[in-house]
Amino acid sequence: MREIEIIAVGKLKEEYLRNGENYFQKELSKKIAFRIITVADEKTKDGAGFKEVDRVKNKEGEKILNYIDSKAMVMAMDLGGREMKSSAFRELIHEAL
């Protein structure tokens, strides 16, 4: 059976996001093996320069890579990425499985 793993950087702080995460984890686990892996975020000072931000991103990226199987299909989600409707995202997941 295929499984979906979400690798997230840092813990969710907002209650509404934690509630959403719990809901989707509960619903998805009825249909497919599903788990969320949380890696610690790197602390960054307010107003950090580009070099420091790049250093932090690289460290967090290394942590993420430790959990990715070389044969896995990887999808990256980013706040600056393209928005996708739930139905389109569901279709994308079905195609991948």
Element layout with pairings:
Elements: E1 3-9, H1 15-28, E2 33-39, H2 50-65, H3 86-96
Parallel strand pairs: 1-2
Q: What are the salient characteristics of this protein?
A:
single chain, globular, two-stranded parallel ribbon, 97 residues, 14% strand
What does this protein structure show overall?
The chain is an alpha+beta fold and 97 residues long. The chain contains three helices and two strands; from the N terminus they run βαβαα. The chain has helices at 15-28, 50-65, 86-96; strands at 3-9, 33-39. The chain is globular. It starts with a strand and ends with a helix. The mean pLDDT is 87.
- The overall pLDDT average reads 87
Number of strands: 2
Rg (C-alpha, Å): 15 Å
List the helices and strands in order. Answer: EHEHH
How many angstroms does the end-to-end distance come to? Answer: 9 Å
* Backbone structural class: alpha+beta
* Form type: globular
* Beta-strand share of residues: 5-15%
Helical amount: 40-55%
Uncertain runs with pLDDT below 50, 5 residues or more? none
Major beta-sheet overview? 2 strands, parallel
Contiguous helical run count: 3
